[in-house]
Design a protein that fits this description.
- By secondary structure, the chain is mainly α.
- The protein has helices spanning 11-23, 26-47, 56-64, 68-71, 80-92, 105-141, 161-166, 169-186, 205-211, 221-226, 229-255, 283-306, 314-317, 322-343, 348-355, 362-373, 377-388, 395-406, 414-420, 423-429, 439-481, and strands spanning 146-151, 154-160, 188-189, 216-217, 263-264, 271-272, 280-281, 345-346.
- Helix 6 (105-141) packs antiparallel against helix 8 (169-186), helix 8 (169-186) runs antiparallel to helix 11 (229-255) and helix 11 (229-255) packs parallel to helix 14 (322-343).
- The radius of gyration is 31 Å and the shape is elongated.
Length: 486
């Protein structure tokens, strides 16, 4: 029997099924891993734990200047971290081994993962704030364009297309608030955690956190290594964004159909049929809807991975690439929807025609009947529904319906009922905060809040960028003075 310590049976299968998966995420993590490695090496140097002759920082700077494709990540060298070590050993020899001092590969990758995710969330927030700004601008422009408000695809009440469209802004603002909280949760450093309980090295966790631009170190070292909830929340919040966009996309697909003809997409956002010359397919809307389905799957995956005992690497191995990609696709879809709304063309005549004969005034007529006759609303509702069977809502049809249904005569002012048949009049009567008459003020409030959120994100980006620049500068100085060189 062969010695189990040298039995490599199954290695090829592990490379194909395991290491290859992780290597696939190397381009996502590459830059951030190198930055995390440099910060750790500089901390070792500060502590005097790195020999003065070590070429580790020099090798990491070579890695910093090498992109992921050129580095040659390969599963035969193991997963991402050991593949990087193989590359370093080929250039600086055994000095590459100093990188393990006081730190596991898990800590390095967790640190890189957080830096990658915080940027991806910030990118999504930027895309989101732009999309809301476009929605607000177009909603104001279309605040006087009359259209039926549909529920169950049945005309319910009159509204403006601007008010309808602005209804998608507020949920996106709520998503922006949640994503800002996600940035804050992710923007915390696990560096210095060791395996999960620290190290005998006197690592300055606050200093390393600042060197990587983190707002703070994570308080509990074991939690720093194994927490999954910030990434689950970020994925779910990104999914929430795209689900809101999906609802708008599905509406617009219906409204752009020949049967409705309310809207048309810009030429750059449609795809013609290769067979049927008359077709103008709203392909951009399908992309948004497909992305929503993709993100639902990614959220479910992260929930499933989080359902494991503590201290299990599989909870994050399958998140390193999937979470940043989910955030990226959410940002792309959000930018696409901004382009859709920005280039959308309305057929306001067709929208107004759809109001004709829809009897969207029925609820207001029932209210008026209550006020004029003092009958209860339930009875007024029944009278209006009965009158609609005649095909019209008029003073005479209401009086006849009341007589037949309630067995009593009612006095109805014909001019009042006639006025309610005008959708523009009904829209003017709706002056409650949040209603069709409040579009301009609501849009201004949304844009003000998002400017504040965007400013906070820009501050965080500035902190990350400045820290990166300082770390690279410090590393170059350290490499330049190694062994007394200048």
């Amino acid at each position: 029997m062969s010695d189990s310590s040298s039995d490599l049976r199954g290695a090829a299968e592990l490379e194909a099924a395991g290491y290859a998966w992780e290597i696939g995420d190397a381009p996502v993590l590459h830059r951030w891993l190198t930055l995390a490695d440099l910060a750790h090496a500089l901390e070792l140097r500060r502590l005097g734990a790195l020999p003065p002759s070590s070429r580790l920082i020099e090798g990491l700077l070579l890695l910093w200047d090498t992109n992921a494709d050129a580095m040659g990540y390969a599963p035969e060298f193991g997963e991402v971290y050991t593949s990087r070590e193989h590359w370093l050993r080929g250039r600086i020899g055994d000095d590459a081994g100093h990188l393990h001092l006081g730190r596991t590969r898990r800590e390095a990758v967790r640190t890189a993962f957080r830096m990658c995710c915080r940027v991806a969330i910030a990118d999504l927030i930027d895309s989101l704030t732009h999309a809301v700004a476009v929605i607000c601008d177009r909603s104001i422009s279309w605040s006087d364009v009359l259209v039926p408000d549909y529920t169950y695809l049945q005309p319910a009440q009159p509204t403006s297309f601007g008010h309808y469209l602005l209804g998608f802004a507020e949920p996106l603002v709520r998503d922006a608030r949640r994503l800002l909280a996600d940035v804050r949760d992710v923007d915390a450093s696990p560096a210095g955690s060791g395996a999960a309980n620290g190290s005998t090295l006197a690592l300055d966790r606050d200093r390393v956190a600042r060197q990587l631009g983190f707002a703070r170190p994570i308080r509990h070292l074991r939690d720093a290594m194994w927490q999954t909830d910030p990434f689950l929340h970020a994925t779910c919040d990104a999914t929430s964004v795209v689900l809101t966009l999906d609802r708008l996309a599905e509406d617009l697909e219906i409204y752009s159909s020949r049967e409705f003809g309310f809207v048309s997409l810009g030429d750059g956002l449609v795809r013609p049929s290769v067979l049927m010359p008359q077709k103008r397919n709203p392909y951009a809307l399908s992309v948004v809807r497909g992305t929503a389905a993709l993100l639902i799957g990614r959220s479910g995956t992260q929930m499933a991975l989080a359902k494991s005992p503590s201290a299990r690497s599989d909870a994050l191995i399958y998140a390193y690439g999937e979470v940043p990609r989910a955030l990226e696709w959410a940002a792309r879809s959000t930018r696409l929807m901004a382009a859709i709304v920005d280039t959308l063309a309305l057929n306001s005549d067709r929208m107004r025609e759809a109001l004709a004969g829809s009897h969207v005034e029925a609820a207001d007529v029932a209210h008026a009947l209550c006020a004029a006759t003092e009958i209860d609303y339930g009875s007024a509702h029944a009278v209006v529904a009965h009158a609609l069977r005649s095909g019209t809502l008029s003073a005479s049809s209401l009086q006849q319906a009341a007589a037949e249904l309630l067995g009593r005569e009612v006095t109805v002012d014909a001019a009042d009922i006639e006025a309610l048949s005008d959708p523009q009049t009904l829209l003017r009567r709706r002056q409650l905060p949040g209603g069709p008459g409040d579009v301009v003020d609501m849009a201004a409030e949304y844009e003000t809040e998002l400017r504040d959120i965007r400013a906070l994100v820009e501050d965080a980006r500035a902190r990350w960028g400045a820290a990166e620049e300082r770390t690279i500068d410090e590393a170059r100085r350290a490499a330049g003075t190694r062994g007394g060189r200048t």
